[in-house]
Specification:
Blueprint (H helix, E strand, L loop, with lengths): L1 H11 L6 H9 L3 H15 L5 E5 L1 E4 L28 H13 L4 E4 L9 H14 L4 E2 L4 H11 L3 H11 L3 E2 L9 H7 L6 H13 L3 E8 L5 H20 L5 E8 L14 H14 L5 E3 L2 H4 L1 H6 L7 E4 L18 H10 L3 E5 L5 E4 L15
């Protein structure tokens, strides 16, 4: 008991924790104590508490064709598969218009690693979206999509990212991090690249002026040491971003692997383990300001609980989420339900944009005038 209290006291003072400290945290089963310390660390970043933010965003999966073949993905279809698709331009634009119609600001476009889409396809699409919807933040394309664009075009990662930024891309999501350890990456997705590749692409994005987010997916059979290495590697990468004056990673999102409908049998992570890992991540990762809940995989009620375990943000409305849903995980919420959940947690809801700038604070009883009703 004295050992964990000493570690938590150092964390509360803002001291950097080591891997050995992290092992002490994992040895504890007192998740409420861990959560309380994580909540204190969140407050150091967010003196505006009890304001809790969210973004009205839409996922557009422009294609499901992918030649990376991750064992844990139930969404992709291999090239030439009869169920493979690439959305036409007008369908994409209509989906974005529906986002704008309900006051949304964030577009998360992701697909697979399509071997037959040229770089110009992406550049042209981003240009047209930005021209038609200048108010929308294009927060799109995973590191492996960027890598595929580089391979298909013959251009460097940096050149691809600069061209996308010039076209209107604002930021990269943290997708594809999974666990930043090569033992696990070889087990779940041999063609996805090493953890260093993921970090290198993210750090190239930081150098060209794009901010990003960082993710972590637990439940692949990784050890607690591998989870801690993931946190430490993100922390060190953020240190390097700050050293060059870059924004770096604006947010961290912890997900749980959903094994249904995939080719990777695994134990499903429960709420208690999720909350414990979330709290430890907030204590270990001392330089990424925002932590999002993971209501998509854990459900809205656990999402609400996570606001007491280090999270300051309820994430996105995620209108039309397909990748997680393909694994039979179909929690969906609309804007007014997010307002209710944040208020039930004793917080004040506020709509933000992708840069975490507050657009609107919802006072007591105030509702969203326009809402997107999800169809399951």
């Amino acid at each position: 008991m004295a050992q964990i209290d000493a570690v938590l006291d150092r964390a509360r003072r803002g001291e950097r924790l080591t891997l050995e400290d992290g092992l002490v945290l994992y040895d504890s089963n007192d998740i409420e104590k861990l959560g309380a310390a994580a909540h204190e660390r969140m407050l150091a970043f967010h003196p505006e508490f009890p304001i809790t933010t969210f973004v009205i965003g839409r996922n557009v999966n422009y294609s499901n064709v992918c030649d990376t073949y991750c064992r844990f993905c139930a969404f992709y279809r291999p090239p030439d598969h009869p169920e493979g698709y690439v959305l036409d331009e007008e369908t994409i634009m209509q989906k974005i218009q529906e986002l704008v119609d309900v006051g949304g600001t964030e577009l998360l476009m992701q697909g697979g690693t399509h071997p037959n889409l040229p770089l110009e396809y992406y550049l042209d699409l981003v240009r047209k979206i930005k021209a038609r919807f200048p108010q929308v933040d294009i927060h799109s394309f995973s590191t492996i999509e960027i890598k595929k664009m580089s391979e298909v075009s013959g251009k460097s990662i940096e050149a691809v990212l600069r061209l996308l930024k010039e076209a209107g891309l604002g930021s990269l999501p943290g997708a594809g991090a999974e666990i930043l350890d090569d033992r696990i990456r070889l087990k779940i997705a041999k063609r996805k690249g090493s953890w260093r590749e993921w970090i290198d692409i993210m750090e190239t994005a930081h150098r060209v002026g794009l901010h990003t987010t960082a993710t972590m997916v637990i439940g692949f059979g990784e050890t607690v040491e591998e989870r801690l290495l993931h946190m430490i590697r993100l922390r060190e990468s953020q240190d390097r971003a700050k050293a060059i004056g870059a924004v770096g990673y604006l947010a961290f999102i912890l997900w749980t692997f959903q094994p249904e409908n995939t080719h990777l049998p695994a134990r499903k992570i429960g709420a208690e383990e999720y909350l414990k890992n979330l709290a430890i991540a907030r204590l270990m990762i001392d330089n990424i300001p925002n932590f999002q809940t993971s209501w998509v995989t854990m459900g809205p009620e656990v999402g609400k609980l996570s606001l007491s375990y280090g999270c300051n943000d309820f994430g996105s409305t995620m209108i039309e989420e397909n990748v997680v849903s393909a694994a039979a995980c179909t929690y969906k919420v609309n804007t007014n339900l997010i307002l209710d959940l944040i208020r039930e947690a004793g917080r004040i809801p506020a709509q933000r944009n992708t840069k975490y700038q507050i657009l609107r604070i919802f006072r007591e009883g105030e509702r969203a005038e326009r809402d997107f009703i999800m169809q399951n």
